[in-house]
């Protein structure tokens, strides 16, 4: 059994060396009802603990919080935090910010310790995917190492 695990570890190391741009992956599943009950019990205090001001604004619709989006954003933040935590790095919830791009695509902005941790790990971008169905949201975060184009002057 140990030799099988060692062989698998060697195989993964070989694959990772052949794909230097891929850094790490994190995934999380969030229960919409559980988050809703948590917010209903503790109010805006829990939202301020988990989300930045810009995130909180984006989670509100005309009729209040959009619970599927709350759970999706929470899962995305946790997926990113898992990538960093698996390398011994710690960050607060608001140091990982999940926002929406021009076409609704999620993207990550890192602040403080999360940004420092990603830089120390050599990650310069995270790719996110969020999905939700009925009472569950799932998110996957892929940390990548890539050469970014230099800004034009």
Q: Main sheet?
A: 3 strands, antiparallel
Secondary structure: number of strands: 7
The neighbouring-strand order within the major sheet is 1-7-6
Mean pLDDT: 87
Report the portion of residues in β strands. Answer: 25-35%
Query: Percent of residues in helical segments?
Result: 40-55%
Q: Topology, please?
A:
Layout lengths: L1 H17 L3 E10 H11 L1 H7 L2 H6 L1 E2 L2 E2 L1 H19 L10 E5 L5 E5 L1 H10 L3 E9 L2 E9 L9
Antiparallel strand pairs: 1-7, 2-3, 4-5, 6-7
Helix pairs in contact: 2-5
Summarize the structure in words.
It is a single chain. By secondary structure, the chain is of the alpha+beta class. The chain has a single domain (22-144), classed as Ribosomal Protein L22, Chain A (Alpha-Beta Complex), CATH 3.90.470. Helices cover 46% and strands 27% of the residues. The protein contains 6 helices and 7 strands. The chain has a 3-stranded antiparallel beta sheet. Strands 2-3 form a two-stranded antiparallel sheet. Strands 4-5 form a two-stranded antiparallel ribbon. It is globular and about 45 Å long.
Looking at this protein, list some descriptive labels.
single chain; 3-stranded antiparallel sheet; 7 strands; two-stranded antiparallel ribbon; Ribosomal Protein L22, Chain A; globular; alpha+beta; 153 residues
Quick summary of this structure?
The chain is 46% helix and 27% strand. The protein is α+β, with helices and mostly antiparallel strands.
């Amino acid at each position: 059994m140990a030799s099988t695990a060692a062989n698998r570890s060697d195989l993964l190391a070989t694959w990772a060396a052949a794909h230097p741009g891929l850094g790490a992956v994190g995934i999380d599943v969030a229960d919409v009802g559980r988050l809703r009950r948590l917010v209903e019990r503790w109010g805006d205090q829990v939202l301020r603990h988990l989300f930045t001001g810009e995130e909180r604004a984006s989670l509100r619709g005309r009729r209040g919080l959009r619970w599927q989006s709350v759970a999706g954003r929470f899962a995305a933040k946790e997926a990113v935090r898992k990538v960093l935590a698996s390398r011994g790095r710690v960050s607060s919830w608001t140091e990982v910010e999940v926002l929406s791009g021009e076409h609704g695509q999620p993207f990550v902005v890192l602040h403080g310790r999360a940004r420092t941790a990603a830089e120390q790990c050599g990650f310069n971008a995270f790719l996110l995917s969020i999905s939700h169905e009925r009472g569950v949201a799932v998110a996957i975060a892929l940390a990548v190492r890539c050469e970014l184009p230099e800004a034009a002057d």
